[in-house]
Amino acid sequence: MFYYDNKLQYQVRVDTPDPRFARLLQQAIGGVEGEMRVCLQYLFQAFGARGPAKYRNMLMSTGTEEIGHIEMLATAVALNLEGSSSRVKDEFAANNPVVEALMGGMDPRQYLSAGMAALASDANGVPFNGSHVYASGNLAADMYANVTAEATGRALACRLFEATDDPGMKDMLRFLIARDTMHQQQWLAVIEELGGHKGTLPIPNSFPVEEELRDVSYDYFFTGVEGVEVPSGRWTQGQSLDGMGEFRLNAVKPMGQEPKLAPPMPQAYAEKQQMEGTSGDD
Amino acid sequence: MFYYDNKLQYQVRVDTPDPRFARLLQQAIGGVEGEMRVCLQYLFQAFGARGPAKYRNMLMSTGTEEIGHIEMLATAVALNLEGSSSRVKDEFAANNPVVEALMGGMDPRQYLSAGMAALASDANGVPFNGSHVYASGNLAADMYANVTAEATGRALACRLFEATDDPGMKDMLRFLIARDTMHQQQWLAVIEELGGHKGTLPIPNSFPVEEELRDVSYDYFFTGVEGVEVPSGRWTQGQSLDGMGEFRLNAVKPMGQEPKLAPPMPQAYAEKQQMEGTSGDD
Amino acid sequence: MFYYDNKLQYQVRVDTPDPRFARLLQQAIGGVEGEMRVCLQYLFQAFGARGPAKYRNMLMSTGTEEIGHIEMLATAVALNLEGSSSRVKDEFAANNPVVEALMGGMDPRQYLSAGMAALASDANGVPFNGSHVYASGNLAADMYANVTAEATGRALACRLFEATDDPGMKDMLRFLIARDTMHQQQWLAVIEELGGHKGTLPIPNSFPVEEELRDVSYDYFFTGVEGVEVPSGRWTQGQSLDGMGEFRLNAVKPMGQEPKLAPPMPQAYAEKQQMEGTSGDD
Amino acid sequence: MFYYDNKLQYQVRVDTPDPRFARLLQQAIGGVEGEMRVCLQYLFQAFGARGPAKYRNMLMSTGTEEIGHIEMLATAVALNLEGSSSRVKDEFAANNPVVEALMGGMDPRQYLSAGMAALASDANGVPFNGSHVYASGNLAADMYANVTAEATGRALACRLFEATDDPGMKDMLRFLIARDTMHQQQWLAVIEELGGHKGTLPIPNSFPVEEELRDVSYDYFFTGVEGVEVPSGRWTQGQSLDGMGEFRLNAVKPMGQEPKLAPPMPQAYAEKQQMEGTSGDD
Amino acid sequence: MFYYDNKLQYQVRVDTPDPRFARLLQQAIGGVEGEMRVCLQYLFQAFGARGPAKYRNMLMSTGTEEIGHIEMLATAVALNLEGSSSRVKDEFAANNPVVEALMGGMDPRQYLSAGMAALASDANGVPFNGSHVYASGNLAADMYANVTAEATGRALACRLFEATDDPGMKDMLRFLIARDTMHQQQWLAVIEELGGHKGTLPIPNSFPVEEELRDVSYDYFFTGVEGVEVPSGRWTQGQSLDGMGEFRLNAVKPMGQEPKLAPPMPQAYAEKQQMEGTSGDD
Amino acid sequence: MFYYDNKLQYQVRVDTPDPRFARLLQQAIGGVEGEMRVCLQYLFQAFGARGPAKYRNMLMSTGTEEIGHIEMLATAVALNLEGSSSRVKDEFAANNPVVEALMGGMDPRQYLSAGMAALASDANGVPFNGSHVYASGNLAADMYANVTAEATGRALACRLFEATDDPGMKDMLRFLIARDTMHQQQWLAVIEELGGHKGTLPIPNSFPVEEELRDVSYDYFFTGVEGVEVPSGRWTQGQSLDGMGEFRLNAVKPMGQEPKLAPPMPQAYAEKQQMEGTSGDD
């Protein structure tokens, strides 16, 4: 179960409120690279963890940390929407001030739906979607999902860092960027602990590889037509990363048949012509 | 631009049609681990590729291969829904055969909406959602997103392999599982080519690390209350994977303040009591 | 504005309640081919209608009729979920009756969320999505959208007709199928009234055709590789349907350049290697 | 910020695992009446709370409790999917055991996507959607949103109670139902503390009522056609609940005009006929 | 069934068209607080109503009224998008006028997709989502859902009132705000008619309370760590609102066990290390 | 299977990059009228095609062409976001340039999530949704779905043409508009080949018309109340388009009963008052 503290994990300060930056911050709350996603992803991975108990525990700890990041960002949104600063005051002193602020780039729903607070949505107002909570039951797959989340998350935080001049906001982002640095490493450290590429690949490593069609397991299939240069690299030559094969280049051709489906069954109510196999020019 | 062949990349054969398996196959078409996602993900990464041209080319080639995987799976769905096999014939010979088939575990929309064919949806009928198309503009982040897609995709294909006895379907899955093996390696090979952990971490590696709060960049924050065992591992000790720091354990406490928001602004129409800072027991 | 009657537009009778059929009926309520969609589509087209007033009026009338179809189908769902029939009684007499019924193919949310009534969702429980409400502002485009809705809607109703033996349900569907027949004609009658193909094509017909690249306005582009048979038909020869050109076959080749994007801008935080244009094998 | 404990808030025990019940439990995790929603709703209301600080604090406390309810339910799902019980063992001993289990009513994605664990989705596999996180910035509106969530949530838990015979699951549900009882009261207690109907209505009570069209503020508008009985009740007579008016019955007629929109502007590319105001029969 | 009138329920007049306000109005059409939601919610509650017939009738009447509110708002959107006013004319007289208008804060899809008319979406262009149509089958739960919809709806209308200077728009909003006042009261009047808190709580009141864990039915669980002040209020003391208990404060501790899941079953294809219970540091 | 070329189907040139136009172009990529939809729609129709093989082939060819249109538009987005032009340079030379560009009308996620590239979303950032991929199994219904897609798609392209002054962008749109012209004709040519209205109506034409309630198959139901003018036209008189009936006007009245549902079943946990059929005023 869970407990809370009445303080933030790290200080959140806004020197010059900017309703437009409040919109951008939504991406870090409810976006696919955001904190709701990592929080729920780590917690669901923990809740369903099977195997060595310490990974459940590790995931719980970091998932719990991330709830606090949502709190920090939601606080930052609310502070950026406050009318106390001179900049916003000026906007609100104009002829019809609310609509000016609304139309100057803020998320209208932060006002219309939330009365000047954060939403569970991204920077375009698209609601958080639970399908991004990856918890596959396979530890290595989940670790890569987590690295992805933290890599795109850190890219997002760096871009937000670029999009503000506010010292308070930059300070908060310095903290969040550093945490993303750690979390990228943390999930990759699990991969290392599991034996690296040779210990984990192919994922899932519990499926017997002899069951797969080994003829094509290390072939780079090239689908370019004549005239397109082959993109060669580490993936077209040398030992495979799992140590079990050699990369090869293969200009791929169909290995399969021309697909032929049965005529429509009567209950599916295609057009008669489909069922009779006729068409206008026959 | 693109071209097509009238043959499948690999043979698709269904010995004993099973409308229930046709439902499960939908996960590999329109699910978050499925082929629509990887196809569009690689193509969008290619379309937006900036930097060395060969990565665009490599992504185009594999993205194009994946269109053919959607085709294979959609063909497999259609064949599993056909009434030609004795098993399905029996089901359709019952009193009210369509409803029996529908209710025996198939996706009702494969009949109701598609007249016995595949949908752009997952195994629960949830439509494919474009937010899963990750193309971050950062090559390393994208490679980890691709590894994740292929790792969860291979886990899915292995589970589907387990869920059918049909020799034709098992044969098709052997091929797809092998391709997932290759594709996991392919994206990790790019990471290796870029210099591995030291060449890529922290992602994005173009953000100056001195801008982040280095004090907490390698700290494992432990949020468990007293009595919870600390989950130690590679992530709590030793050199960080980027070679720039040392992992540390940190039983975290709030570094921030108690958040205080301004009273509601009048135009936000909170309750009067909120604006006056009073409550019933004051 | 709108008014209601306390009677149904057409009789809804269920002789033998079947919770499984109640699930299938959801597709006709909240599915993409369903009545919520056509109802809202016609009403939104009416609400935004510009041009001859009679089309607004005609759309209002049919949109209003469709609200009553939602009512009929929701009533049919509720009646199919009732415990009064012997069939359902038997199911509920089993050991743990609710779970048996739930697991025998009904939509669990009709019980869990609605207490045995209809939902605003499709047959897989996916909620109705307003993006299917097409109202383009172009009358001809909207008429084709409406024909599509009624064509897929009638196919759905015919398939539902096949999926039940209940005389009451079949009677209700006979009515709905007939209405779909009429509505297909109604929207095509508008096209005819507007002058048919020559009066409406290309849609929108108010864009000056000389502004488009007329060289390719009647070419069937064939993208098959060598060995794929050309699919010839009405679309590869003869006068175009708008009477302004001749159909032609064109085995298409790229008319454009190889796309070259600028290097990543620094603020986008790509990997350094992308920005420097280097990769591991250089 | 937040902390966790390695124990559950209340004991979760499954005596006889049932993969079908694991599907139903999903509604209480990711459904609109579920724990993800209440958890996030209370936390977002807390994060954006303006006005008396104690309400923020109260919301934090209960929002934090709800994270633990997600944990309990996700644990219950995982336990219901375990192969250790004889019942499930038998299912898995059949010819093709996985597909039998999958097709016997479980959520296929609990296996295919999660490897036998909970998802962030509802009982139909529809992902949790953040638009259900209501945090309006108005305390009274939020309290009613919370009562709604707990009322539908308790109805759901009662229905789940009915849908299982498992003593462990019934025990867990007894706890969750009791908590829903408390939480309904808790939010209504805030309304009482704010002065009940007279202290809170109309919500928001900070909008000057004289600005609204008081002529229709207490009228029950009856839209039935002739022959429909008027539904009279507390809402058609007596003092209004805010004490500021009298309920009245009003058989409503249009007070507005026939809407007339301007012709389409040229850049909107309607059909020419719309722009010219002509139609085929003119 | 339903009928329509060619007049609006209340006059809709736009003195100075403002495409930006047309975007904000979308929230009142397709947003979670909007008219599509209340319209469909009341109608679905009516369609599935079981118990005293007058509630079905009352819901039908108000649901039907709400269709007319969608019509009013959609008309208001269309009028705000019209080029007839001097203000918009000026914008359209600029160099590239359409893009200026588009970029000045309007919803681009009102032009691109609808040709200057309303969409079935919210102020951020997110399509209406049917999962917000609450019809739980429990009358009291539904009444609170309806109060919530009207409370957030009235807050939204008040905020829109603040966001426009247009006399016509303000006049229309005065009407809609007044109707929301009435509708809040109407649903609460049903609660009063049912006996108020004692007659309805806990919802559902048909579940035998002795089946729930009465020990925790009136406890406010406090989850704050040491140092966090307890938020006391009406919910921590005094008689419970249902008259059946006493509120208590309870600084909650885990009552449950540490969750232990079985190892992964082989068919779920976890990593080998999970199945063997080993990790790199063992 | 599929192949690619390293050149674009048609030249994509941007003379003056405009990040705001990059947002509008998203509608043509991931919007309901966009290229992802037509591409996937034609391919899924092909993959599931039953009946004359040439239609599968024709659909494959055009579906494959459309992948190249996504590529063109994604390239156009990326070029519009580039900092190389003087116009964008100026914006980026301002005080805090990124936020200015972001707030000047561009899609913030093109920067935050994609690092200056296209997304699989529409002009409001709403992700592409697979439910728009219509493939009904009925050839005529699908052809009308395709005409709709190309009619709304061409209207969109014309509106985009209006929204830019850039010669390169206008040139690209001239090509795409011309292709939409052809594709509208192509799908209507199939209808003609199938025998036009008489050969295809009512869709599906394989359902025996005598099974439908022929009494109402050609009746225009008028639902306006007294005082509303009847909208007469081609649909109220003359021979029906399928040649099998006569259009008629019918001022519709209820043909059905007043719906009466059974009382709630106990396990559905309605309020007691519903189950007892009582209410407060009885």
Automatic annotation (TrEMBL), chains A, B, C, D, E, F:
Mn(2+) 2 binds at E66. One of its GO terms (molecular function) is metal ion binding. CDD domains: Mn_catalase. The keyword Metal-binding applies. Gene3D superfamilies: 1.20.1260.10. Keywords: Manganese, Metal-binding. Residues 256-282 are annotated as: Disordered. InterPro entries: Ferritin-like (IPR012347), Ferritin-like_SF (IPR009078), Mn_catalase (IPR007760), Mn_catalase_dom (IPR039377). Signal peptide: none annotated. Mn(2+) 1 binds at E35, H69, E150, H183. It comes from the Bacteria. Pfam families: Mn_catalase. Binds 2 manganese ions per subunit. SUPFAM superfamilies: Ferritin-like. Its cofactor is Mn(2+). Belongs to the manganese catalase family. This is Mn-containing catalase. It comes from Deinococcus humi.
